[in-house]
Specification:
mainly alpha, 7 helices, 202 residues
Length: 202
Amino acid sequence: MPSVYQLKPAFQRTLRPAVGRLAAVGVTANAVTVAAAVLSIGVGAVVAVWPDRAWPLVAVPVLLLVRMALNAIDGMLAREHDQRSRLGAVLNELGDVVSDAALYLPFAFVAGFEPALVVAVVVLAVIGEMTGVIGVQIGASRRYEGPMGKSDRAVVFGVLALWAAFGSPVGWIGTAVLAVAAVLLVLTVVNRARAALKEGAA
């Protein structure tokens, strides 16, 4: 199924010159991964502390764009500049899950969002990423099938953050968007599990 993740190759081509310069001055993939997680935790904390202010919500999509770039950069540093490591693999998977939880759970404090639904989406996102990793355990590759992968979730929460930040009533629209996201996350889990099983069997 289509996913924002499919745009990643073009995004990486744009970033490749900058990645080369970062590698030349000694920036490591692991440092970039940790930086992305720390930034996500920081912005999430700001939203949690000031859920009724507009500027923390505006910071969310800005951070998501920065984080998307950092996620692409750490992978390129690892693959293309001989920085692969076991620690890097652990940090990459944990960093994504921690970043998502830290950044999205505070939406439960923002007026108009249904807290239980926000939590459900975050939990399903964690299950989806775990399902992708399980593929490796059964002899398949790390699975990234959609339709609600990491990049897609970023688009959903980024748009919702801007919607709320500029004073638009969240209400039933936010509830509907999160409900659809939850359904798509369940489908994502199923798609990743099926793809892993099929690849593992082959």
